[in-house]
Amino acid sequence: MLSILLISSSLLAQEDTTSKTLPPVTVTGTKIDQKVWEGFRRSFKNAVDPRWYKIAEDYLVRFIMENQEQSALFNKKGTLQYHITYGNEKNLPPDLRQQVKSIYVEYKITSAFSIKESSRLIWVVNLENDKNMLVLRVEDGEIEEAKNYKKST
Fold first, then answer.
1. Number of domains in the chain
2. SS3 assignment for the chain
3. Which tens digits make up the pLDDT trace of 42-69?
4. pTM for this one?
5. What is the CATH number of the domain that holds 116?
6. Domain that holds residue 128
């Protein structure tokens, strides 16, 4: 899933190095199993407007919660596999926002995604300035520059 987010952030830029693309994912509407529905309701009590899709043996749900777009993947037993929250600079924890801004002074934070999987919390932060776009991966306070794109002129 992290790869999908990284690839989607490159739509407006040219990449410095060659990259591989993922094969297309087929997503279809589906009827939701009771176990999956109950797992979703337990995990996301305040969710509104859920839209469900069947992907292989799993169930993807896109919804709104706390005024933010979210997605979650459940297996057929109703167990949450991962949860993604889509946001921007104001949604970053203050200490992480400050850490990123202190290192990337010349850049503006354009979007931020939190990805929760098991006990892991990974942030994907997109930055840009006049010449470049960056994709950062942040986990356990460690910042990794995952992608660096030069803007086309």
1. 1
2. CHHHHHHHCCCCCEECCCCCCCCCCCCECCCCCHHHHHHHHHHCCCCEEEEEEEECCEEEEEEEECCEEEEEEECCCCCEEEEEEEECHHHCCHHHHHHHHHHCCCCEEEEEEEEEECCEEEEEEEEECCCEEEEEEEECCEEEEEEEEECCC
3. 999 999 999 999 999 999 999 999 999 9
4. 0.77
5. 3.10.450.360
6. 2-150
